[in-house]
Each structure stands twice: as C-alpha cells, then as structure tokens.
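Q: Here's a chain of 355 amino acids. Please give me its 3D structure as tokens.
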Amino acid sequence: MSARVSEKRPAGAGPLTYRDAGVDIDGGNALVERIKPAVRATHTAGVLGGLGGFGGLFELPTGAYRNPVLVSGTDGVGTKLLLAQAHARHGAVGIDLVAMCANDVVVQGARPLFFLDYYATGHLEPDVAAAVIEGIAAGCREVGAALIGGETAEMPGLYAPGEYDLAGFCVGVVEREKLITGAAVAPGDRVVALASSGPHANGFSLIRRIVERAGDPAAEQIDGVPLLDALLAPTRLYVKPLLALIEHLPVHALAHITGGGIVENLPRVLPPGCEARLDARTWRRPAVFDWLQRHGEVADDEMWRTFNCGVGMLVVLPAAHVAGALDLLASHRQEAWEIGAIAAREGAAAVRIDR
C-alpha cells in the first residue's frame, strides 16, 4: 500500500519535501510492514506473491471448476465512519467493509476468493490505519477471502483531521450452472430471514441526526447494552452459513438487506408476477431500532425503507426445505425465522409486510 498523490510545489523560500506538503512516504511504508502479519494470515492456496507489487495475484484452483463465473462486488461503509471516528471505534468498520462486499457476492452463490481495500485520509495516523486494516483482515479470515492488496492514500487538505474513508472490492467464484439469480422463485416458496446484528452500515446519515437530537450517545443504554455498541456493531458476515445452505438445500434466491431495506432489496430477486407476503411479527426487531424510531419520530414507512429492521439477509426456498434450513442455520449459530411466502402478484407492490 502506498500513497499516490501529485501536488504542485508552492512558491516560497527554501526547498520543500513531500513530507512538508503533508505526505509521509516513510510512514506509509512503515504501515505496510506493520500490517503484513495480519494480511498474511488471510492468504489461501490461490495467492501468488505478497504485498508490495503493482497488482494482487490470485490463481484459480486447477480443475476445481468446469465453467467458473467470477462475481465481483464493491462497497464502502458510508457515514457510519463518522460516528466510529468520533468515538475511536476503528476496528469494527474494517469488518463492515468486508461484510458489505462479501455478503453481496455470496447472494449469487459465489464463494469469496480475494479482497482489496482502499484507505484514504488527510493525514496518516498509523495506529488508526492499522486498526482498520486489521479489522479488514479479520473479516477476510471469517469469509475465507484472501486480502491480496490495497491502497493507502494520504491526501492532505481533502479530509478533515481525524477523518478517513474506505472502499472495498471482493471477487468470488461460482459454477455457472449454480448461479443463484432468482429465476427459480415461484409462488408457494417460503421466505426465511437471517437476523442482523443491528443497523449494519446503512441509514447512518439519519442515525447521526437522531443521535445529535437525543444527546450524548455514550450515556445511553439499550437493554443493558451501551447505545454506541448497538449502533456500531459490525455488519454480520453471512458467507459461511449461506454457503453451507447452498451446498445442502435448493436455494432459489438470496437478498442482502442494505440501503432501501426489505421493501427495496427483496424485489431485486423476484421474477415478474411474484410478490412476497411477509409478517413482521415473526421476527425479532432489535431494541436499537425502537430507540431510533422513538427519538427520531421516524414514520413506519421510513423505517422500512431506511433500515434492515432486524433482517440482514433473506433466503427464498421451497416450503419443504424450511425446517432443514432453520436447523442448518442454527448449527452455524445464525438466528433465523420463517417470515412469509411467495405468491402470485396481485398489485403494484412486490413486497407486502403485515405489521
């Protein structure tokens, strides 16, 4: 990881250096050395080389796939970063970054292969950057993806002191014949919801406004848990339980519930002519969402369109396999519920939620 910045030298007396302009190349190099053990711990059999090259190298296992399809995903953590930075909660956002990308890749049925990150800041703070990247490495280990490269960009003047931004890039692989597209979804299928760990990494522009209105979040408790812990809990990584589910049961569709909530993400995998009929009383909504709705006076429809409301991933599969799916997910310590069914579409809305 290295800083790549080009700036014109201002006029003035005496020679200037890149460090005078705010970019510490030596600091960036030291960071790379510091994070190498964490990065190396993510490496799998397909990794060729290590950090320091111009591109990360990964070799697909010979003979493992007949007709492999690569599935890619990219995302960030959004303004959750601002709340995390304000309260020095840096490690968890690295996990968020991996989850937001890897959870998207697995909904196509793909197994994550490798991950790259982009860390940008105005002034490199080695302890902060190391905490973030070590969090990224922890997320990669959890989903089985190798962290094979990235970029640390120090750009003075572009970010306020103490601020940084993140972007992630994940690539996975799946047999073409095993791609999950939603085309198999049909009336009579059931919908299973996987519990979220909280707001994940969506809706934080609204969350920060609500927190500002409510006062000091450090003084708040929700069901015996500090409010900040509830808000900043890292996004749940669904890759391992979902890959096990896909291996053993006929999964017709998966939907990662991110920005837009259930009402906008589930329709993305429903065929024309199908609608989902869900019952909000069938799953547990974490108390943090009640706190947000109460303190922000947020309307019900706005909650559904902004937050996951306790559901981080949806699975659509035949009714005969619901019990097996719930048992398998429980064996992976993943809380889940049957929350509804697929029916022939009767109106404009692709998702109906009884509340």
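Q: Can you summarize the key feature?
A: The chain has a mean pLDDT of 92.
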